[in-house]
Design goal:
Helix content is 37%, strand content 20%. The chain is globular and about 85 Å long. Bound molecules: 2-(butylsulfanyl)adenosine. 2-(butylsulfanyl)adenosine (IVH) binds next to strand 3, strand 8 and strand 13.
Length: 695
């Protein structure tokens, strides 16, 4: 029987199910024809009637709503802000190299980590892929059906842009053939060069802002609130990496790429398996040759270890995998004139001279400002206002002034010197011997430092408060509404006042207050990062959070650590990745009474989530010491394995140690473990404990 003819009210459950399946496929096809191909197959009225029928059935049978229901397809209303979504497996970035020697160092690190013989080292197979200059996204499939697509975000949590991604023809809504129940697939969304130019031409014709480069245009197109706009932008996707998978799908990256193709993805056709590191450089040259003729922008070549079991052993260090590297093309350069030098004051008081330039096109991006770093750099390069300068930009790096070009018979300006007083607050500046940076001594009396700290505090990778950016922080600071972090959470008390401000209104004020309310709970690493302690970036924040677990423990330990030589101070110094200088900054931060007051104030409004030990970490919270020489894995690999399982690895045995792993010829640490009655295992025992196959 043809269910299409049955009125909604008369459908039974089985018929409703058949009908919902039919409508899902049909509406998807019509949507595609309308939005992507600009070739509608039915009238708008007919289309609307189909959607209405689907909605009515869903309303009668809510348990039958499908993952791929048309309600989630294009045309459906999307919230005006994107929902956040946590990745099942984190989305990493890549470390860069710029030449053959740096690439060889990368391979050497792998060889050392895995303890490979010279023969094994030369035979290491890689997969090389062009590095697409777009934005990475994660696609989740449940039982082969596309259920969610997210941006990379901070690597842990991204924005849900499913509705927009559904408009991409390169994203299959259903995978062909067998799939794991749950899998995340990663790839790069990008715009072709021609498509980019066409979009900019269209934007210009409409009097709208144009995009600086294809990547910005792709990002702007994907973050549209209206999927209809995204559908009009010819975004493409290359799939290239694996996220979480409920079951293994391949044993090598190369076969994984083949699997991706079989499922229906587009894999970059230039991807190549290399039989050894000797093939890396020739491949790089080949791609560099072809670069200009490619229909899309690339900024280098990505090399990945092919063997997935090696990838797993290598794991990652910080935010990047040890098993992959991006070999970038040399930076793009241009020549322009230096118009003036402005001195900016950063969040930590550092004074940075910034060059204002005659705008110039550098590899497709218009550059009007570049960093001059510091006084020493300016002197070394003898850069003066009015000079003709060579500038360079490499990927995401802020453009830099490289050198001055000689001009005959031209009178030059006097040499530039840093101001003796802070341009923002007038306090005197200081330069610590041995450091290149000049700093304002004004601390929190310096408005520039306060404002920069606040901007950092609300930024995307910190508190991530939508609608509160550089502009509004400056505005609220000038209006004396926000002078300290706690003030941000008191803004709701000023809602009506904000609504009355120029450029605001009740709706935008409400939105801002909502965004603030939503951020009253924050993860521990984000909170640490938001504090803006010098040398504590996202990476160190994560290390600290993982080590201390909760804010109260951390704070208590940091207060104890003020005593030089204390156990707490030693503990902080022993966290892998936290150097002495960083440890000093952290302790210094807590020693400052002003910071203590700020924290107390903030904690009245903010809940900090404890950092639970890594999932599946069977050694979670355990403190382990390795001693003696291991024969089946190198020390770095052993340490990385333990950390992956949630353990902390320290160098010295103390009462806090839970386990000592004894390699061959273990000496004093073994004795100390015995004295203190601490558990010990040999290497075989350790492998068993870590769930590794016995060697
Ligand atoms: S692999 C751990 N492969 O480059 C795996 N990334 O600089 C990380 N990218 O965030 C990604 N082309 O957005 C990979 N063939 C490729 C890539 C690629 C471009 C981007 C990606 C990543 C960034 C890191």
């Amino acid at each position: 029987m043809d269910t299409a003819q049955i009125p909604v009210a008369q459908l039974d459950a089985a018929q409703a199910e058949t009908e919902l399946a039919r409508l899902s496929v049909l509406i998807a096809r019509l949507n595609h024809a309308y939005h992507t191909q600009d070739a509608p197959e039915v009238s708008d009225a007919e289309f609307d009637a189909l959607r209405k029928r689907n909605e009515d059935i869903e309303q009668r049978f809510p348990t039958l709503i499908r993952m791929d229901s048309p309600r989630f397809q294009v045309g459906a209303a999307v919230d005006n802000t994107f929902k956040k979504h946590r990745h099942l497996a984190p989305m990493l970035s890549l470390d860069n190299v710029f030449d053959q020697a740096e690439f060889e160092d990368f391979v050497k690190r792998i060889v050392r980590f895995l303890g490979l013989s010279p023969e094994q080292a030369t035979a290491l197979a890689f997969v090389a892929e062009p590095k697409i200059d777009g934005l990475s996204i994660s696609l989740t499939y449940e039982n082969g059906r596309f259920v969610r697509g997210t941006t990379r975000g901070d690597g842990t949590e991204g924005e849900d842009v499913t509705a927009n991604l559904k408009t991409l023809k390169d994203i299959p809504l259903r995978l062909k053939g067998n799939t794991p129940d749950l899998i995340e697939i990663r790839g790069e969304v990008f715009l072709g060069k021609k498509e980019f130019l066409a979009i900019n031409a269209a934007q210009e014709a409409l009097g709208e802002r144009t995009f600086a480069n294809p990547r910005n245009a792709a990002a702007g197109s994907l973050r549209q609130l209206d999927p209809k706009i995204t559908a009009k932008r010819p975004l493409a996707l290359f799939a290239y990496a694996m996220g979480f998978s409920s079951k293994p799908v391949a044993t090598s990256h190369w076969s994984y790429l083949e699997q991706l193709r079989a499922w229906g993805f587009t894999v970059n056709p230039l991807s190549t398996r290399l039989e050894g590191m000797a093939e890396a450089e020739p491949f790089f040259e080949k791609i560099a040759q072809e670069r200009a003729a490619l229909p899309y922008d690339i900024d280098g070549v990505v090399y990945k270890i092919d063997d997935l079991s090696l990838q797993e052993r290598l794991g990652f260090a910080g935010r990047a995998p040890r098993w992959a590297i991006a070999w970038k093309f040399p930076a793009e350069q241009a020549v322009t004139r230096l118009l003036s030098i402005e001195v900016q004051v950063g969040r930590t008081g550092a004074l940075t001279p910034v060059a204002h330039l005659e705008p110039v096109n550098v590899g497709g991006v218009i550059v009007a400002r570049a960093t001059l770093h510091n006084q020493d750099e300016i002197e070394r390069k003898d850069i003066r206002i009015g000079d003709l300068v060579q500038i360079q930009r490499a990927g995401d790096v802020i453009p830099q002034v490289m050198a001055v070009l000689p001009e005959e018979g031209r009178e030059r300006h006097a040499a530039f010197t840093m101001p003796t007083h802070c341009p923002a607050c007038g306090a005197s500046v200081e330069r610590i011997p041995g450091e290149a940076v000049t700093r304002c001594t004004g601390g929190l009396t310096c408005p520039a430092q306060v404002v920069e700290r606040l901007i950092h505090f609300v930024s995307r990778t910190a508190f991530d408060i939508d609608g509160l950016g550089e502009k509004s922080i400056n505005e609220f600071h000038d209006a004396e509404l926000v002078k300290a972090p706690g003030d941000i959470f008191r803004l709701p008390e000023h809602e009506s006042e904000i609504a009355k401000r120029e450029g605001w209104g009740t709706t935008s004020a409400r939105k801002l207050i909502n965004a603030i309310e939503q951020r009253r709970t924050i993860s521990f690493p984000r909170f640490i990062f938001a504090l803006g302690i010098r040398r504590v970036g996202e990476n160190n924040a994560r290390l600290l959070a993982r080590h201390y677990g909760s804010f109260s423990v951390w704070r208590e330990r940091m207060e104890a650590a003020r005593i030089v030589g204390s156990e707490a101070r030693q503990e902080l110094g022993e966290i892998t990745g936290i150097g002495t200088a960083t440890a000093d900054e952290i302790v210094g931060f807590f020693a400052e009474p002003h910071n203590q007051t700020t924290l107390d104030d903030l904690l009245r409004y903010v809940t900090i989530e404890d950092e639970v030990a890594q999932s599946g970490g069977k050694l979670s919270g355990k403190v382990i010491v390795f001693t003696g020489s291991l024969t089946t894995m190198t020390r770095p690999e052993a340490k990385a394995t333990a950390e992956r399982l949630g353990a902390k690895v320290t160098d010295s045995v103390s009462k806090k140690t839970d386990l000592v792993v004894l390699g061959a010829e273990a000496g004093s640490k073994a004795r100390k473990a015995q004295e203190l009655g601490i558990d010990t295992v040999d290497e075989a025992g350790w492998r068993e404990l870590a769930g590794l196959p016995s060697a």
